[in-house]
Amino acid sequence: MTINNLNIKLRPTEISDLDTLFQFQLDKEGGYLAAFMPKDPTDKTAYLNKFTELLSDPTVNNQTILIDNVIVGSIAKFVMEGDTEITYWIGRKYWGQGIATNALKNFLDVVTNRPIYGRVAFDNFGSQNVLEKCGFTRIGSDKGFANARQTEIEEFIYKLA
Fold it and tell me: What's the Cα-to-Cα distance from 63 to each of 6, 87, 102, 138, 145, rounded to whole Å?
């Protein structure tokens, strides 16, 4: 399936979406690439509590990514230490189809705060490509403890001005 055949839509995340989005988080390969995960990504109660609270936070914009009304991922804007940042997660069976790139382009049409930042593990080349295709520029790096890897790793910081 190519992106030309996909009907990608974004809509505000609903509590009923969280079960599916939680299942995506359980994917070990996806977690490894995301790197900065909760201490226990299998704790569904903690996940549901966290995201239920985030859904009511006016500074956060959580969107569910759909293709033909099937949930394939999520994308969000949040503020951390005064900076607007984005995050996204695509279910692994949907990787490599241009979904993240197109969803992020659509999201950036709605979320117009600039600058906006994205962070990605140094070896998550797919996500680095997504950010670059959407106009983000790598501006630096940081190090932090990645729960999914149980070690400190480098993450690249991207900015869209």
Answer: 18, 10, 13, 24, 27
Whole-number average pLDDT of the chain: 93
Helix (H), strand (E) at residue 130? helix 125-133
Please state the φ and ψ torsions of residue 47, each to the nearest 5 degrees: -60, -50
Q: What is the pTM of this model?
A: 0.90
Q: Tell me how long the chain is.
A: 161
Measured CA distances, 155 to 20, 99, 111, 145 (Å): 27, 22, 23, 10
C-beta separation of 128 from 32 below 8 A:
no
The matching CATH number, chosen from 3.40.630.30, 3.90.1150.10, 3.30.470.10, 2.70.70.10, for 3-160 is: 3.40.630.30
